[in-house]
Amino acid sequence: MEKSISALRTQLRTEIRKIRQNLTALEQAQAEQIVTQKALDLIRKRNAQHIALYLSFDGEISTKLLIEKLWAMGKKVYLPILHPFCKGHLLFLQYTKETVLIPNKFAISEPQLNVKNILPLEQLDIIFTPLVAFDKQGNRLGMGGGFYDRTLQDWQSKHFIPVGLAHQCQQVDSLPTESWDMPLFDILVG
């Protein structure tokens, strides 16, 4: 009996997360350096000023160096938070050195909600997204909550571009996709 797409995706998430979590500290640091440089090149090329990132979790490529470099360049950095009223959606809040971070229901650090720090999606230039797996077609497999898929819906008609950040070990030949999956503009691999 053939596995359902859902079962294949769940199995793939488990396998790739395990591989990613087993990367050495050196492999993680090297990947962070490579991805940071690629991201900075893209940011310069697009003259991006408002950049959404995420705080790394569960073996994801660290975004710490990139965030620090963006702050030093005077760029505005934003982090996602779980939308308090619109279940399954994200808001993006400005992130500075003074930002207070609190754990969300998934134990991921996010800025404390302050409406003065929210930036509408339409004003972002680039949204760097986490992912579990990806393929050459630009398809991304996330953790399964659909937060980024909902956020990136119809991104082609919006101002921002979505760009994934990933380790090489997260690439697969072809992802089993669903109708709601949003292919990314680009995926930067370290």
Automatic annotation (TrEMBL):
Which keywords does the record carry? ATP-binding, Ligase, Magnesium, Metal-binding, Nucleotide-binding
Q: Name one GO molecular function term.
A: 5-formyltetrahydrofolate cyclo-ligase activity
Which residues make up the binding site for ATP? Answer: R140, L141, G142, M143, G144, G145, G146, F147, Y148
Give the GO biological process terms.
folic acid-containing compound biosynthetic process; tetrahydrofolate interconversion
* EC number annotated for this UniProt entry: 6.3.3.2
Q: Which residues does the record give as substrate binding sites?
A: L55, E60
- Write down the chemical reaction(s) this protein catalyses: (6S)-5-formyl-5,6,7,8-tetrahydrofolate + ATP = (6R)-5,10-methenyltetrahydrofolate + ADP + phosphate
InterPro entries in the record:
FTHF_cligase (IPR002698), FTHF_cligase-like_sf (IPR024185), NagB/RpiA_transferase-like (IPR037171)
Cofactors named for this entry? Mg(2+)
A Pfam family of this chain: 5-FTHF_cyc-lig
Asked whether the UniProt record includes Amino-acid biosynthesis among its keywords, one would answer no
SUPFAM superfamilies assigned: NagB/RpiA/CoA transferase-like
Provide the family line: Belongs to the 5-formyltetrahydrofolate cyclo-ligase family.
What name appears for this protein in its UniProt entry?
Answer: 5-formyltetrahydrofolate cyclo-ligase
